[in-house]
Structures are given as C-alpha cells and as structure tokens.
Automatic annotation (TrEMBL):
Transmembrane segments: none annotated. It holds the Pfam family TetR. The keyword Zinc does not apply. It comes from Pseudomonas guineae. This is Transcriptional regulator, TetR family. Residues 28-47 bind DNA. Signal peptide: none annotated. InterPro entries: Homeodomain-like_sf, HTH-type_TetR-like_transc_reg, HTH_TetR, TetR.
C-alpha cells in the first residue's frame, strides 16, 4: 500500500484537478481547501496564494517538457522518435491543460511567471528546431533552414492555442477530452505533410492514421 500523500502534494494535485475541470479563474484557494477537506490556513501554510500554486504547477509542466523535448545524442532520429515526441506532447498538454486554456490570463496576472514562460518558450523553440533539423539529417523531412524555422513557429502556435480553440467551440472546460487534444497533435503533424521524404512516407502515414480524430468529434 502506498503512503498517504503529504498535504503539500495533495494541494498540488487537487488544484490541478480543479483548474483542469473548471478553469483557473473559477477556482479560489477556498475552493481548493474545501475540495481537499483542509482549512484555508493549512493551505496558506504551504502556499501563500493561488499564484504560488500555479507557479509550482508550471514548474512541473516545464520540467516534464524539458525532459522529452530534446534531440537524442549519438544516434540518428527515426519515425519512432516522431511518435515519441508527439505522444509526449499530448500527455503534457492533457495533464496540464488549464495552463494552455488560461495562459494569457495567467501571464497577465503574474509578471514573474510571464518572464519564466518567455524563457521557456524561447528554449522550446530552439530545441524544436534542433529536433526538426535532426529529422532532416535523418532523411525523414526535406526542409531548408527557413522552412524549419517557420514549421517550428507554426507548430508552437498550434500547440499553445489548441486548448483555447476547443474551449471557444465547446464552451465548458470540463467537456474536453484527451481525444480532442490528440487532434491538435495531428494538426502539428499535418504541417509536415509537404516536407515528408518519399522513403519515410509510409511510416509517417501510419502515424497520421494513429493520431487522426474526425473533425465532427471535435467541433459540434
């Protein structure tokens, strides 16, 4: 039997669940305390305010992305690596979906978080370009430097705006599903369609089939 979670960890996990289900702006520290069955004072002992909880959740999200968004050393990239990156992105987006949904508000509310996010975004763009360059060197994608830069930026725009797009078409943040986010990952892959090398097309098309979610399940 696993040991009971410490209060601080319970606050982190409970806050994440509430933020994902209801949207960050709809959840107060009193809501979090009531959800966990603890006093507001106990919550404030661990976190001085809601922004501190959000900062901790962002740190966890940032660490997760930094762990996988890197080019492996000492070997050539494969289509299986493409699957890994896309599935890892999906998992991070789903687990911390409130960050994507409420991003603009979160950054406007916390200047320190906004600066951390700016540095994080720059790092992600650099790492993603390096990964795309690896796929070019592996003969999976056919692109020049300008195309790699444009594809990286377009992919980032889709990744960071997809959850908000879903919320504008679905309305209720609690109505989102992992399948809906999977279509966002598919959209990123679709950007690469015109650059796929002939010898990699069969394997990449299998990945298309794996990630595709019909549009009528997303927008209705």
């Amino acid at each position: 039997m696993s040991a009971p979670l410490k209060t601080r960890e319970r606050i982190i996990q409970g806050s994440l669940a509430l933020f994902n289900a209801q949207g960050e702006r709809s959840v107060s520290t009193n809501h979090i305390a009531a959800h966990l069955g603890i006093s507001p004072g106990n919550l404030y002992y661990h976190f001085r305010n809601k922004q501190a909880i959000i900062a901790e959740l962002f740190a966890l999200y940032e660490s997760q992305v930094d762990t996988f968004l890197r080019r492996p050393e000492g070997r050539t990239l494969t289509v299986q690596d493409k699957t890994f990156y896309l599935e890892a992105l999906l998992a991070a987006m789903w687990h911390y979906r409130f960050l994507h949904r409420d991003l603009e508000h979160l950054l406007e509310s916390d200047a320190e978080l906004a600066e951390r996010y700016r540095i994080f975004a720059q790092r992600c763009l650099v790492q993603a370009q390096c990964i795309y360059q690896g796929f070019v060197e592996a003969g999976i994608l056919l692109m020049d430097a300008a195309q790699i830069e444009a594809l990286t930026l377009n992919s980032w725009i889709i990744m960071t705006s997809w959850v908000r797009f879903l919320c504008t078409t679905r309305g209720n943040p609690g109505d989102l599903s992992e399948e809906m986010l999977r279509r966002g990952i598919y959209q990123v892959l679709a950007l690469e369609g015109g650059y796929t090398a002939p010898q990699a097309r069969e394997a990449v098309e299998a990945l298309y089939a794996r990630l595709h979610v019909p549009l009528d399940r997303i927008v209705r």
